[in-house]
Amino acid sequence: MIPHYVDIPGFEIVVIGGGGDLATRKILPALFAHHVSGHLSAGARVIAVSRRAIADPDPEHMWRQISPYVRHSDAADQFASFFERISFVQADATTADGSKRIVAALDPSEQVRRVFYLATAPAIFGPVCAALSGAGGVHANAAVVLEKPLGHDLESSRAINDAVGEVFAEEQIFRIDHYLGKETVQNLMVLRFANAIFERIWRADDIDHVQITAAETIGVGTRGQYYDHAGALRDMVQNHLLQLLCLVAMEPPSSLEPDAVRDEKLKVLRSLRPITGGDVDSHTVRGRYEQGAVQGEVVPGYHEEAGVDPARDTETFVSIRAHVDNWRWSGVPFFLRTGKRLWERRTEIVIQFKRVPHNLFRDGAGPQVGNRLVIRVQPDEGIELHMLTKIPGPGGMKHRRAPLNLSFASTFGEDLPDAYERLLMDLVRGKSTLFMRRDEVEAAWSWCEPISQRWAQTGQPAKSYVAGTSGPVASADLVNEVGRVWNEDDE
């Protein structure tokens, strides 16, 4: 349950790029959900800034735009009152005149919490911040939100951080990764650190390997031009998957204070074994989807998508065999995998435990496999613990693997909030635990960059896979050659 924020008398969220895709699909629906739930005070405002005039800024038109993405789709009658909180400003936020126009629409009091949400291309983060500062829009109670990807490599990431850091102090900068706002991801810390039965076996002595999968059935959609210059490594691995890896592998923090948690995540990133040179060839797989069928629907290949340059060899799939070189995880492989146009939508963390040291149940009683903990991040958030259990009835001690299933929706009996709902209100509160610190972002880039550089140097084309499958055959080989299998192949 997200707490109420009506005790904050007034705050304003300034969405630079307020007419864009992110504002329509995520930011405005999340704020509307808080409005419907009564979480927003009377003084809470939204300022939607767009370089082009937002077409027909009236409640009926805007509701038609955002209604497919809201949780409270039956609350259309409340949208008019939410619409009254929104001010629309047409301005180029990178210019002096445009920034003055934006600042003129804001509350002049420095007591009002002010959040600038940069839902724009990262290349203009620095110029926007400089212009807003020059117009007098930045004060001690202001914050700025930076969307990923923060640059396209380590050098560009540092340049963006430097430019934004000239205007905002580090504690005012919130680098968002919406995966960290998901209930299951946050629950991972509770699972580990509030349950002794797990924390005592959360180490190399008892865990055989870890799998982290982010599979999508969709293609690039309307993001073809962006995605063609990013690819799966930059779009998903450098941020989302490495953040999940950090939460799985981190040591217990001294507290839940932001820097205590982020210090431990940084230690994991710095303990990742570098994958460089020839190791990139043997420890990574990059793929690209071809025409196929996803859930019964024929879909085009990547090179046929709108906005894509067929001559570019952009990867839509990546799998990596990684290692965290420290005492807790020595010898435990971490398998990372993400891709588009795969067999189903699935984001999960799989903790595969080792087998018991001696098998009492031989003579064809059943498979002898280790326990498996599956943490489902989406679409159906929950936790499954797969155990061996006796098959009821006569016939001896025959057994099979069966799950103990904790479904968040059925257990807690409520509609789970979207990740952006929590993260936006943490911004208002100034709580940065679920946001990335600069040194985290740069450590992640430092680990990923040798992989992308090797791919570019060798010129090896991405391996093809048919849309609707689980990716290139080489991805299965990456796991099989060290005696493991992907979770769906062993279900």
Please explain how this structure is put together:
This protein has 491 residues and is an alpha/beta fold. The protein folds into 2 domains: 10-147, NAD(P)-binding Rossmann-like Domain (Rossmann fold), CATH 3.40.50.720; 180-418 and 441-490, Dihydrodipicolinate Reductase, domain 2, CATH 3.30.360.10. The protein is 34% helix and 22% strand. The chain has 16 helices and 17 strands. It has helices at 21-37, 59-66, 79-83, 96-104, 125-134, 154-165, 183-193, 196-199, 224-228, 231-249, 258-271, 278-283, 408-412, 419-429, 438-458, 473-480, and strands spanning 10-16, 43-50, 86-90, 113-118, 142-146, 173-175, 207-215, 284-290, 292-294, 297-299, 317-323, 333-339, 346-353, 372-378, 382-390, 399-407, 463-466. The strands form 3 sheets. A 9-stranded mixed sheet has the order 16-15-14-13-7-12-11-8-17, with helices on both faces. The model is unreliable at 1-6 (pLDDT under 50).
